[in-house]
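Operator note (shift B, R.M.): manual run for DUF6249 domain-containing protein requested after the automated queue skipped it. Running by hand, logging everything below so the morning shift can see what happened. Input copied straight from the record, untouched. If output looks odd, do not overwrite the archive copy; leave it for review.
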Amino acid sequence: MSDMLDSLTGLLVIILALGGPVFVVGLVLRFKLRKQRSRQEFAIRMLEQGHTPDLELLDRKDDWSDFRWGAILSALGVALLAVGAVEADKDFLAGAFIPLLIGLGFLLTFYVRRNSQGKKTDIVRTD
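Run finished. Output pasted below as returned.
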């Protein structure tokens, strides 16, 4: 009985480890599709009323999305670095650089995009 329980536990761990990221990606895609669909329905309603929809509104990407992801991932990386330093675990420290560098990449993308559009790169949201 114990062997069967151990094998089921191992199977459950594998399913959750592989299925968890798939579930999260599925949720993110679902919400993106829902947002896109609502924008398209809004444009259709505007056309039905005789108005011309603003195409920039339909294709608009939130500039602040890169900033939010950059801030979150950078903070996660710094927190993991702090935990790794306290625990003195070199493998943990090496893994902490992954979210930190990805977050810094998002922040860099945000600032480059804002500067190329001629917008101010203030941290305070003005638009």
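Quick read of the result: The CA atoms of residues 39 and 56 lie 11 Å apart. The chain has a mean pLDDT of 81.
Leaving this for review. - R.M.
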